[in-house]
């Protein structure tokens, strides 16, 4: 089995928030979505999703409500709140800055 | 999101915890089902798909815990840990009770002793800047702490440049006139600035004003708070009331604060102004006062001492007659107040500390054994997803719980112990240690107890944590790693036992030496037979008995009436009892020898002829006094052997003549030589003393001693009523027996209390040390059961098994005793000032302790050795 890269620490919250910008999803859906969108590169350690979701709930960045799925099963759906959208913006810009900085360092190192 | 809403959310979640979990469960179950479906779709079997889904999601309990940690309060996990710790302790009550009791014992003893140390040594004396206060003495050839005379005080006060104020005080027994006649009242005389020097102001009324003790001194007196409450019911109307002390009317001008005490003059109810017009006050050679002074700002102790010494030297040159060899001496006030008790308290604190050390080591090794058997539990918890941090916290919580409960019990025990110790202090002793009245649980003591609890927690948490490596989960689960762990533990546990045994040895030797000192002190030759002697102080009104003949007649009447009491064999009078402070001294000269004003200080007592037979002293040569030897006869004197050795070496003093230094006209003939009666404290060296016939120089104050064939305690009431019947106006006080006096003497008390307390600590230490050794050996035997079984199966004899186990124990004991021996001699050298008649390296004590400890230790290890030897090889091998 090929080794997959671990999720960068601290990025799980951001990924969850980003996934939820399209539509409300349940936990399984979020995990699936992250995996698909990253072409199977990023696998969320599925268990850690739930503590993270509780944290986001507590911060007020997402809302949760129980709804029926298309297969008629009860599931908890998470929706992004306005505060969550704002938080996502902050996290994205922080992340981009960091990636850019790392990129510059790596490029510099290659050229040298 | 603001913190308040978050808190509210957390709170609401706290109250719907059940729903929180069920929702989480449902959510995760849904997740697993979905994942299972996904796996099924890839063609897995149903079972494989289910396991794959479970694996992918991870440990549900751990996940729930982590989710809960997100939204929960941090104290919730603490509560969980605590309840788990409690369950753990309850599950193993034997361990819990033993550990807590041992700990409570150690902490209790330490806290109680610390409370005494705090009251006596740490808490500052209740005066302004008490560290700047010094006590002034005159140092004379026989000792450094003697009174100064009033004229010297006046000169010191005027000439010094180092004190912002200098005053004098003296403890004083007043004779107070009451409707029932004279009564003795404890008091002190102080110069006008005394309270200002201390920085104390009366609670009601006024202080003495400056100059109140001048040429025409006012007769004013201050009351102690206790006397105000006791004698005057705390009424404000007490001011300006009159009280007759020593025949003079005094006006009460104020009351001292409740917390005021001044140990060098206590006990004192009446604080009267010093009279500059007294007979003694006029003479430079009459010493009756101590000085107290406050150092000027910026002046060091050394500078001040040098200055006052110089002044005393100047006075010696100026007044060669009276001030020859009268040097100045100065000590910090705290040194005078607590100097005596400090070494004893420090020894006791060290003793309690050592006991606490043993107790902690004992509990730590119990925890170690327990952590060994909990290895599996820890491994299981780790496998179930407990994070190492959580596991460590669990141990910290358990340690905290043990230490906390132990500390609470210990403090409660300490309170009782303190009360008990306080009660055991004789009343007179307590009066001279007024600072102990503030004894109790105060901030300092509680802080000390808390510090001990924190240290104990740290020790108890670190011990099992250091022992258990959380990474070895698999090893723990498989019950392996037995041999390696066993060796490590045995080595560590064995070292702990060596520490325990050595500490116990130090305490035992300390107790042995102190006990031996105490025995030596009680059985020291004091030159008299203390049994069956009843004693009573008498003070008659001087104005009523103003003539010597009246006083002699009173003495004779008392001796006659007391002698007629049933059972009384002989009665004697003296102006000062033996085994006191050795005061009442005077300078003598020997007639017929050159004299240049040397101060040949000797103790002086005026005694009746019956004094000797009552004490049963030994006459070495010459004769005792005759009853008719009064002022009409030749002046005679009896001297003791110490005097003979000092002033008549190689000569018979009987027949020689001596005189008081300033009184050549009335020499006295030495008619008798007696053995040394201990005039000073029991542990003081014998001193030169002279005894004059009471009938030649009678006083109105004296002590009556009666030797009886019956119980001397029972004689006291009838002695008192018989003497009172002669003159109800006389003050009779301090009825006691000679044995009581010896028993309650400060030196006896200090020796006794330190011997008993250190003895108690040592006994507990011995017990704990031996129990600790038993634990180590029993544990080691338990772990080696299989090995022993194999050995026996291979033909080892029971004897060799005994040898195997006892060898192990013997090695530990030998190391412990050797280390302890070195430590004991070292610590005994530190306490050698407290020892009396015993050397620090007293071989019998050391040998007895070593043998006792070794015997007790070997006995304790014999039990597990027997168990090992009775192992049946078949059973032992089957246990695997």
Briefly note the structural class of the backbone of chain A.
alpha+beta
Strand content of chain A: 5-15%
Q: Could you name the CATH class of chain A? A: Mainly Alpha
Question: In what order do the strands lie side by side in the largest sheet of chain A?
Answer: 1-3-2
Q: Which structural class do the helices and strands of chain B define?
A: alpha+beta
* Count of spatially separate domains of chain B: 5
Q: Summarize the amount of helix of chain B as a percent range.
A: 40-55%
**CATH architectural grouping of chain A:** Orthogonal Bundle
Which spans of chain A of ≥5 residues are poorly predicted at pLDDT below 50? none
Inertia-based shape of chain A:
elongated
Helical amount of chain A: 55-70%
Describe, in plain words, how this protein is organized in 3D.
The complex is a heterodimer of chains A (112) and B (880). Chain A has 4 helices and 3 strands; from the N terminus they run αβααββα. Chain A is α+β, with helices and mostly antiparallel strands. Chain A has one domain: Arc Repressor Mutant, subunit A (Orthogonal Bundle), CATH 1.10.10.10. In chain A, a hairpin with a 5-residue loop joins β2 and β3. With 880 residues, chain B is α+β, with helices and mostly antiparallel strands. Chain B has 5 domains: 66 residues, no CATH class; 190 residues, no CATH class; 183 residues, no CATH class; 183 residues, no CATH class; 189 residues, no CATH class. Helices cover 54% and strands 16% of the residues of chain B. Chain B is built from 29 helices and 23 strands. In chain B, strands 1, 2, 3, 4, 5, 6, 7, 8, 9, 10, 11 and 12 form a 12-stranded mixed beta sheet that branches. Chain B has a 6-stranded mixed barrel with strand order 15-16-21-18-20-19. In chain B, β1 and β2 form a beta hairpin. Chains A and B meet through α2, α3 and β3 of A and α1, α2 and α4 of B.
């Amino acid at each position: 089995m090929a080794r997959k890269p671990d999720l960068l620490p601290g990025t799980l919250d951001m990924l969850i928030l980003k996934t939820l910008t399209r539509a409300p999803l349940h936990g399984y859906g979020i995990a699936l979505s992250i995996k698909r969108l990253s072409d199977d590169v990023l696998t969320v350690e599925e268990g850690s999703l739930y503590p993270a979701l509780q944290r986001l709930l507590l911060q007020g960045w997402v809302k949760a409500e129980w709804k029926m799925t298309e297969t008629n099963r009860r599931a908890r759906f998470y929706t992004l709140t306005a505060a969550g959208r704002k938080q996502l913006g902050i996290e994205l810009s922080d992340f981009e800055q960091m990636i850019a900085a790392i990129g510059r360092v790596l490029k510099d190192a290659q050229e040298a | 999101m603001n913190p308040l809403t978050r808190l509210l959310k957390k709170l609401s979640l706290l109250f719907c915890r059940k729903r929180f979990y069920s929702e989480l469960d449902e959510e995760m179950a849904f997740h697993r089902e979905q994942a299972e479906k996904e796996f099924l779709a890839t063609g897995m079997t149903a079972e494989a798909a289910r396991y794959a889904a479970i694996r992918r999601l991870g440990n549900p309990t751990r996940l729930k815990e982590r989710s809960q940690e997100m939204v929960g309060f941090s104290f919730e996990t603490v509560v969980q840990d605590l309840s788990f710790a409690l369950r753990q302790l309850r599950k193993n009550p034997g361990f819990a009770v033993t550990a807590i009791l041992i700990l409570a014992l150690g902490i209790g003893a330490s806290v109680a002793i610390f409370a005494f140390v705090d009251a006596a040594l740490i808490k500052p004396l209740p005066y302004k800047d008490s560290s700047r206060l010094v006590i002034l003495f005159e140092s004379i050839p026989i000792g450094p702490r003697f009174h100064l005379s009033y004229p010297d005080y006046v000169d010191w006060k005027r000439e010094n440049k180092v004190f912002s104020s200098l005053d004098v005080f003296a403890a004083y027994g007043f004779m107070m006139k009451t409707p029932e006649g004279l009564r003795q009242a404890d008091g002190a005389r102080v110069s006008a600035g005394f309270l200002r020097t201390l920085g104390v102001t009366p609670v009601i009324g006024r202080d003495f004003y400056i100059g109140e003790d001048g040429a025409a001194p006012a007769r004013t007196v201050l009351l102690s708070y206790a006397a105000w409450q006791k004698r005057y019911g705390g009424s404000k109307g007490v001011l300006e009331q009159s009280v007759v002390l020593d025949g003079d009317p005094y006006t009460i001008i104020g009351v001292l604060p409740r917390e005021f005490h001044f140990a060098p003059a206590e006990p004192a109810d009446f604080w009267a102004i010093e009279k500059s017009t007294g007979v003694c006050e006029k003479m430079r050679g009459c010493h009756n006062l101590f000085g107290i002074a406050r150092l000027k700002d910026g002046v060091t102790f050394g500078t001040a001492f040098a200055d006052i010494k110089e002044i005393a030297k100047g006075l010696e040159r100026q007044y060669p007659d009276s001030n020859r060899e009268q040097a100045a001496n100065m000590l910090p006030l705290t040194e005078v107040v607590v100097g005596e008790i400090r070494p004893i308290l420090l020894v006791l604190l060290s003793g309690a500390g050592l006991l606490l050390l043993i107790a902690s080591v004992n509990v730590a090794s119990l925890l170690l054994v327990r952590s060994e058997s909990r290895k599996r539990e820890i491994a299981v918890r780790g496998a179930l997803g407990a994070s190492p941090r959580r596991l460590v916290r669990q141990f910290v919580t358990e340690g905290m719980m043990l230490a906390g409960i132990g500390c609470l019990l210990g403090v409660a025990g300490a309170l009782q112990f303190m009360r008990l110790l306080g009660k055991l202090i004789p009343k007179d002793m307590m009066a001279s240690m007024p600072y102990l009245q503030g004894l109790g649980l105060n901030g300092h003591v509680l802080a000390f107890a808390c510090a001990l609890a924190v240290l104990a927690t740290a020790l108890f948490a670190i011990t099992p944590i250091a022992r258990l490596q959380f990474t070895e989960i698999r090893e723990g689960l498989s019950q392996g790693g037995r041999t390696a762990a066993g060796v490590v533990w045995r080595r560590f546990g064995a070292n702990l036992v060596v520490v325990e045994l050595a500490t116990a040895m130090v305490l035992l030797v300390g107790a042995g030496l102190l006990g031996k000192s105490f025995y030596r002190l009680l059985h020291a030759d004091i030159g008299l037979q203390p049994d069956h002697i009843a004693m009573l102080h008498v003070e008659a009104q001087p104005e009523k008995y103003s003539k010597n003949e009246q006083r002699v007649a009173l003495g004779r009447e008392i001796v006659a009436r007391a002698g007629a009491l049933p059972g009384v064999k002989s009665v004697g009078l003296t102006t000062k009892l033996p085994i006191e402070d050795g005061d009442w001294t005077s300078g003598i000269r020997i007639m017929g020898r050159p004299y240049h004003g040397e101060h040949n200080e000797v103790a002086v007592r005026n005694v009746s002829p019956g004094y000797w037979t009552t004490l049963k002293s030994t006459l070495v040569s010459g004769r005792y006094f005759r009853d008719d030897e009064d002022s009409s006869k030749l002046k005679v004197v009896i001297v003791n052997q110490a005097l003979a050795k000092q002033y008549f070496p190689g000569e018979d003093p009987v027949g020689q003549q001596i005189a008081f230094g300033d009184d050549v006209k009335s020499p006295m003939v030495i008619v008798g030589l007696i053995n040394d009666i201990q005039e000073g404290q029991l542990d003081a060296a014998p001193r030169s003393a002279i005894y004059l016939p009471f009938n030649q120089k009678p006083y109105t104050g004296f002590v009556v001693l009666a030797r009886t064939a019956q119980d001397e305690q029972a004689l006291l009431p009838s002695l008192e009523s018989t003497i009172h019947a002669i003159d109800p106006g006389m003050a009779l006080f301090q009825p006691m027996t000679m044995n009581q006096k010896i028993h309650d003497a400060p030196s006896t008390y200090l020796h006794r209390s330190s011997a008993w307390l250190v003895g108690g600590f040592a006994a507990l230490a011995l017990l704990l040390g031996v129990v600790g050794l038993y634990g180590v050996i029993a544990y080691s035997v338990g772990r080696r059961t299989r090995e022993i079984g194999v050995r026996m199966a291979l033909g080892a004899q029971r004897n060799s098994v005994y040898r195997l186990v006892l060898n192990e124990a013997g090695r530990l004991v030998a190391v412990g005793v050797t280390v302890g021996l070195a430590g004991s001699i070292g610590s005994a050298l530190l306490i050698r000032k407290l020892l009396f008649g015993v050397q620090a390296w007293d071989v019998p004590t050391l040998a007895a302790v070593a043998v006792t400890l070794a015997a007790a230790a070997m006995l304790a290890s014999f039990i597990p050795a027997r168990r090992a030897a009775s192992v049946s090889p078949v059973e032992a091998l089957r246990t695997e």
